[in-house]
Amino acid sequence: MRVALYLRVSTDDQSVENQRRELLATAARRGWSIVGEYADEGISGAKGRDKRPAFDKLLKAVTKRQVDMVAAWSVDRLGRSLQDLVGFLNELHAVGCDLYLERQGLDTSTPAGRAMFQMLGVFAEFERAMMQQRIRAGIAKARERGTKSGKPFGHPSISPEREDEIRKLLATGMGIRSVARLVGAGNCTVSRVRDEMSQNHVV
């Protein structure tokens, strides 16, 4: 089996040597053939693929089917969220590549590992649902605060004078972006005024 090691540490004063040593010991026990080592040193796991050059090279090797399995010391070496892990696993499985995680004992080349992967997908979906629920709750709370304080929720309103100025400029046939730039208002605000004018048959 052709195996690629992925190693990562968050700060420059840390070393990937411990990760490498444990993974090489596992490879020796299992008879793996190590075809590459990809190490991102001093890079946070919260960074995307474009900010992790070794991770990017690893995925390119996987896409070219040069690797049968990716081995990492722990799930947090790959990313900081469950969704990151499931997304990464989906990329691997799309080309028939497996994943081994030393600390978690996850090996998707085994039936138990594949079952664990399915469970991770369920947890990732749950995490997404919870995040959406928190966002909706936050919006509702902000609306409630705005109602109690008498302040409108959403984008701040503009003065009647500026609205009049926007209407006059729109009436000349000037575009939304140009009007927004001249008046110093947002494109959405100018668009709203234009919609109101259209409804009143002004434009």
Characterise this structure.
The chain is of the alpha/beta class and 203 residues long. It has two domains: 2-110, 3-Layer(aba) Sandwich (Rossmann fold); 160-199. It has helices spanning 17-30, 53-63, 75-78, 82-94, 111-149, 160-171, 176-183, 187-199, and strands at 2-9, 33-41, 69-72, 98-101, 106-107. Strands 2-1-3-4-5 form a five-stranded mixed β-sheet, with helices on both faces. The N and C termini lie far apart (69 Å). 22% of the residues are buried. The model has no long low-confidence stretch (mean pLDDT 82).
Quick rundown:
This protein has 203 residues and is an alpha/beta fold. 56% of the residues lie in helices and 13% in strands.
Computed Rg? 27 Å
Q: Helical stretch count? A: 8
Q: Mean pLDDT score, rounded?
A: 82
Global shape: elongated
The major pleated sheet works out as: 5 strands, mixed
What is the CATH superfamily label of the largest domain? Resolvase, N-terminal catalytic domain
- Architecture of the largest domain, according to CATH? 3-Layer(aba) Sandwich
β-strand amount: 5-15%
What is the CA–CA distance across the termini?
69 Å
DSSP, total strands: 5
Which residue ranges are poorly predicted, with pLDDT under 50 across at least 5 consecutive positions?
Answer: none
How many separate domains make up the residues?
2
What kind of assembly state do the chains in view correspond to? single chain
